[in-house]
Write a structure and sequence with these properties.
Blueprint (H helix, E strand, L loop, with lengths): L1 H8 L6 E7 L32 E5 L14 E3 L19 E5 L3 E5 L5 E5 L5 E4 L30 E8 L5 E4 L6 H8 L17 E6 L5 E6 L14 H4 L8 E7 L8 H15 L1 H4 L3 E6 L6 H13 L3 E4 L8 H12 L26 E6 L2 E6 L8 H7 L6 H13 L2 H7 L7 E4 L2 E4 L3
Parallel strand pairs: 1-3, 2-4, 9-11, 9-12, 12-13, 13-14, 16-17
Antiparallel strand pairs: 1-8, 2-7, 5-6, 5-8, 10-11, 15-16, 17-18
């Protein structure tokens, strides 16, 4: 019972997670021949392998954190099955679907590249399953009637991912701790953040849907208290400042009464400095100022603060959030400004890195020489596969026709010409992964 009460007071909010995903490999093509009574030389009938399952992300509005990825960090889709005889195709592997909160960014943890922004309803394929290999029935020709080789399936993509949640909110409430942000959200929406008279009552961002008198609605986020030094990791602000990035409008809540012995203007400057330090664009984000706790000070103090704020170019709205006085004006002004502002920001995925062209030849391979041995290695394509290795894996070294096919592929890919440009002589050794052969002009 004690544990249950504790969990209710301190809900787990996870907005960053690191996981590994692996799409399924494609199934191998089959090498089989038709066998039937009274049918002579039935010919090759090997079927193709099945496609590997993909890793798909989809947004779920029922989720608000990445807590599902706290303890399980590896996700693997099913492999495709191998092909069979009688031209039977292998069964495709099942996709794996991962549900995340709306607004989750997916990064490649190895290079920091943004792969996707899960903000729309459409599913996003992050790791594609490998293609199934061709069976030997594809390689039958009038001159090659008994192909004893098939293509293997290609490997599925795999990534080490960093998931980062950036809440999709139209309006973000910012301000020092205990200035009334949670009180404001609780009276203008159905959200029920914890409200108490001590610092850091709110331990995680809280979203609420707010309806204005104009009939429009928008999402407001209560960002946990930011303090001086938050951009450098002090307090809670370092963890939650990222959730302001998408907000189209900021409402800066200030305790104009100075009830905790602080100067309201100094508080205002402190928060603005932290926002600018974290992200320079936040300093230029549209902002209005809500002066809270007006009932705890005199009218002259409120007017002096309001005049200073307006002199800096901001709109000022006095209010008493605890009794919902003046909050309608704040809500209606937010709705009016949002109607003129662009929609919530969506982040564009970054293209995959391009391999270094200086180290590659032809269709994507590198050649290095050690004495009279030439080492040939294929380059990784954007999907993580190696075309040269796939060709090698498809070859049956005990079959003459399969070796001829391998030679034609090396010529078409430019490997043979590249070896000649590197000065290879007849009789020199070519090492292609675990396969070696003597070069013959």
């Amino acid at each position: 019972m004690l544990v249950e009460r504790f969990c209710g007071v301190l809900p787990m909010f996870v907005d960053v997670a690191k996981i590994m995903v692996k799409a399924g490999d494609g199934g191998n093509g089959a090498v089989t021949f038709h066998r039937e009574k009274y049918v002579a030389a039935g010919g090759p009938d090997g079927g193709d392998g099945g496609t590997g399952g993909s890793v798909i992300f989809i947004c779920d509005d029922g989720l608000s954190t990445l807590a599902d990825f706290r303890y399980r960090r590896k996700f693997f889709a099913d492999n495709g099955q191998n092909g069979g005889g009688k031209r039977c195709f292998g069964k495709s592997g099942a996709d794996i679907v991962l549900r995340v909160p709306r607004g989750t960014l997916i990064f490649d943890d190895e290079n920091g590249r943004l792969i996707a922004d899960i903000s729309e309803d459409a599913p996003v394929v992050i790791a594609r399953g490998g293609r199934g290999g061709w069976g030997n029935s594809h390689f039958a020709t009038p001159t090659r009637q008994v192909p004893r080789f098939a293509k293997p399936g290609t490997p599925g993509e795999s990534y080490s991912l960093r998931l980062e949640l950036k809440l999709l909110a139209d309006v973000g409430l910012v301000g020092l701790p205990n200035v009334g942000k949670s009180s404001l959200l609780s009276v203008v929406s159905e959200a029920r953040p914890q409200v108490a008279n001590y610092h850091f009552t709110t331990l995680s961002p809280v979203l609420g849907v707010v309806k204005s008198d104009y009939g429009s609605s928008f999402v407001m986020a209560d960002i946990p208290g930011i303090i001086e030094g938050a951009s450098d990791g002090a307090g809670l602000g370092h963890d939650f400042l990222r959730h302001i990035d998408r907000c189209r409008l900021l409402v800066h809540v200030v305790d104009v009464s100075g009830s905790e012995g602080r100067n309201p203007m100094a508080d205002f400057d402190t928060i603005n400095a932290e926002l600018a330090e974290f992200n320079a664009e936040l300093a230029a984000r549209p902002m209005i100022v809500a002066g809270n706790k007006c009932d705890l000070t005199d009218d002259e103090t409120v007017e002096n603060f309001a005049a200073a704020i307006r002199g800096m170019g901001y709109e000022f709205f006095p209010m008493m959030a605890a009794i919902a006085h003046g909050t309608d004006e704040v809500v209606n002004r937010c709705a009016a400004l949002l109607a003129e502002l662009p929609p919530v920001a969506r982040y564009e995925p970054e293209p995959p890195p391009v391999p270094d062209a200086a180290a590659l030849d032809g269709c994507g391979f590198s050649i290095t020489r050690q004495e009279d041995v030439y080492f040939v290695r294929g380059a990784k394509s954007p999907d993580g596969s190696d075309r040269l290795l796939r060709v090698l894996q498809s070859v049956n070294m005990d079959d003459y026709e399969s070796l001829q096919y391998f030679q034609r592929m090396l010529i078409s890919m430019g490997v043979i010409d590249a070896l000649r440009e590197h000065g290879i002589q007849e009789g020199d050794t070519v090492s292609l992964y675990d396969f070696e052969f003597e070069f013959v002009n």
